[in-house]
Design goal:
By secondary structure, the protein is mainly beta. It contains two helices and 39 strands. The protein has two domains: 304 residues, TolB, C-terminal domain (Neuraminidase, 6 Propeller), CATH 2.120.10; 134 residues, TolB, C-terminal domain (Neuraminidase), CATH 2.120.10. It starts with a helix and ends with a strand.
């Protein structure tokens, strides 16, 4: 009996299909296991070195050492250090892996940074001289960036990226011990599309500051108005667990950066068309603009790696160091003067030649990739379709496609056969003259207009006896002119034209 049951199960289509699927999955898994592991630092294929010599950079995160003797920064995926006064940059990391967002540990002995060297953005630490790199987080999907140290140097906070039904995800702040581990969640995302990031601790470690998109709704939108408020800086009280908006308002607030003495928070706000460096007194809340020569921040866009590159105060809390205009700038708060800190990099980069294929700009013939409204004739001897804006007819099985009409004044859509296969109905469209319902002989020729007024017409179909055409009239659809879009619904009109269409229903 058991044998009969098993045989019966094997005869079921669903069982056979499931068994085949399991077998395919097992083979794929076995093949994946045998495949060589991808190494970010050594991808397959030919590479060659090019010389790099620069004294400017783009979108560089900077940090100042605890003693104020050096600056670390990122440039083109590598990390460099220069003396506080500037000079020749020392490379701390190198290779194809992308390293960014360096932050000194509180004692200055180590640097935390973001890197994809293990196959995705994660948090790493290394000694200050660039040696002994160690991976702190090991996420393979919920990737992390924007590290910052707790004041005791034992833990690192980072932004963890979450996505749902849309690639534009949202961030949460997670805390990790420097030795690694699963991490502890510090903040919860408000939804799956409004971002948060740029975490940083207050000097005493009690507060965690971060920037968050606080625009209304739960979906990410482009072209938001920065003159109102997009981002605000939030502050989590680690003693009470409460989170409050620390600063925001018109122009938003991003890139929170506490001063070492705990009195000030530097941040960036949009003022009309400029991104302006500000500071606010932590106790009084009094805010003041400092410097309006920053590059444009990313408040309107999707900024999972930060809305502006990282910046830092000097240890005496008298100056702020940041990137702007391709340079590393030092802004003295008392004098309100910014001075460039020069750097020079002489290095190499590994690159691969771009993969290129010749593409003919205007070939005489080419293969179309998509056919629309494909229909076989009632007798099965021909096929009808639309491609590249025009209607085509082709004899089956191996005929040569030919245009139904020869005109080039308008586009043709929604072709359909009559029951006897002698006629073809379709709609035309011109951005200035609008649309019409037309009929043409299946043998080819000019299309005859059967509607009296221009409009937005779709989906024509012949009645069974071929005497009339039923079609749908729509409105503008927000992409075309609203003209001739008032009378919508289902209409019927004689196939020979000459009479006004009759509306059957408004829907």
């Amino acid at each position: 009996m058991k044998t009969l049951v098993v045989l019966a199960l094997l005869c079921l289509p669903g069982f056979v299909e499931a068994a085949a699927t399991d077998s395919t999955a097992a083979k794929a898994k076995e093949k994946e296991k045998d495949a060589p592991k991808w190494d970010v630092a050594n991808p397959p294929g030919p590479w060659h070195d090019i010389a790099l010599e620069v004294s400017e950079g783009t979108w560089m995160s900077v940090d100042v050492s605890p003693k104020g003797d050096a600056i670390v920064f990122d440039l083109l995926g590598d990390l460099y250090e220069i003396p506080m006064a500037g000079g020749e940059a020392k490379a701390l990391t190198s290779g194809i892996a992308w390293d960014e967002q360096p932050r000194y540990s509180p004692d200055g002995s180590h640097i935390a940074f973001t890197s994809d060297r293990a196959g995705g953005d994660n948090i790493w630490i290394m000694k200050r001289d660039g040696t002994d790199p160690k991976q702190v987080t090991k996420e393979k999907f919920r990737l992390l960036n924007s590290p910052d140290w707790t004041p005791d140097g034992e833990y690192i906070v980072a932004r963890k990226h979450f996505t749902s039904t849309r690639s534009a995800g949202a961030g949460e702040m997670w805390l990790y011990h420097r030795s690694g581990g699963e991490g502890v969640q510090m903040t919860k995302r408000s939804n799956d599309q409004k971002d948060a990031g740029e975490p940083t601790f207050s000097p005493d470690g009690r507060y965690l500051y971060y920037s968050q998109d606080v625009t209304p709704g739960s979906t990410f939108q482009y072209n938001k108005d920065p003159n109102t408020q997009i981002y605000a800086i939030q502050r989590l009280d680690r003693d009470t667990g409460e989170t409050q908006v620390f600063t925001g308002g018109a122009g938003g607030a991003i890139r929170p950066t506490p001063s070492p003495d705990g009195q000030w928070l530097a941040f960036i706000r949009r003022v009309r068309g400029k991104s302006v460096l500000h500071r606010t007194n932590v106790l009084s809340g009094i805010e003041e603009p400092l410097f309006d020569g920053l590059d444009r921040d990313l408040q309107e866009t999707w900024a999972i790696h930060g809305v502006y590159p990282g910046m830092a105060w000097t240890p005496d809390s008298k100056a702020i160091v940041f990137w702007a205009g391709g340079k590393i700038q030092r802004f003295d708060v008392a004098s309100r003067q910014a001075k460039s800190i020069p750097f020079h990099i002489r290095d190499t980069r590994k690159i691969r030649d771009a993969l290129r294929f010749p593409v003919a700009v205007a070939p005489e013939t080419f293969h179309t990739k998509m056919l629309r409204w494909v229909q076989v004739s009632p007798r099965g001897d021909r096929v009808l379709y639309q491609a590249l804006g025009y209607v085509y007819v082709r004899d089956l099985p191996n005929g040569t496609p030919r245009r139904l009409t020869k005109q080039k004044e308008h586009f043709e859509f929604y072709p359909t056969w009559s029951r006897d296969g002698q006629s073809i109905a379709y709609v035309s469209w011109d951005d200035e003259k609008f649309g019409a319902v037309r009929v043409a002989s299946a043998r080819g020729g000019d299309g005859r207009v059967v509607t009296q007024n221009p409009g937005h017409y779709v989906e024509p179909v012949f009645t069974p006896d071929g005497s009339h055409i039923v079609y749908r009239a729509t409105s503008d659809g927000f992409l075309t002119s609203p003209a001739w879009g008032r009378e919508t619904g289902i209409f019927v009109v004689p196939a020979r034209g000459g009479a006004a269409p009759v509306r059957v229903t408004r829907k």
